[in-house]
Amino acid sequence: MTVKIVIGLDGTDAGERALEFAKNLASKIGACELLAAYVIEWSPFTFQTAEENEQRHNRREEEIKLAETRIVEPAVAALKAAGFNASGLVRHGDVAETLNKLTVENGGSQIIVGRTSSGGFSKRIFGSSTQSLVMHAEVPVTVVG
Asked: CA spacing 20 to 30 A to 100: which of 4, 34, 53, 89?
């Protein structure tokens, strides 16, 4: 049976620490697949004109492409170069809810995220989002310092 681990990336050193922790864990597990995930904080609930919504859709697509090329694709390439079975995803949404949903939909057995003392992922996930992810995720969550 192959174990699947989801790694929450944010483009900072904290995300790199989560990636390194996941690589170390995967090497000990053996048959393991790593899924590098980046969630762009996004709320679909705003009141805008049709033109503003079209511009927003275009911005959303640009953000996804940037996250793929700058964060997820290099992480997946590094994992594959190290001999791991790896893939990546970028989604918009609430960070905690989306990481949990991606994990469940992809058959993940654990979520690994990084912690930083300022900016980046901590602003997006720590606080009520972290509590929500840790307390309500359907799989274990590891927070790497």
From this structure: 53
**DSSP H or E stretch at residue 16:** helix 13-29
Rounded to an integer, what distance in angstroms lies between the CA atom of residue 19 and that of residue 37?
A: 11
Angle at 106 between CA 101 and CA 112, to 5 degrees: 70
Cβ neighbors of 134 (< 8 A, separation 6 or more) are: 141, 143
In this predicted model, what pLDDT tens digit does every residue of 77-118 receive, in sequence order?
Answer: 999 999 999 999 999 988 899 999 999 999 999 999 987 655
Cα separation, 83 vs 93, in Å, equals 31
Place of tokens 């290099």: 74
Reported pTM: 0.85
The two three-digit tokens of residue 71, written as one number: 């964060």
What is the torsional sign of CA 10, 142, 127, 116? negative
* DSSP state for residue 127 in the 8-state scheme: T
CA–CA dist 115, 142 (Å, integer): 10
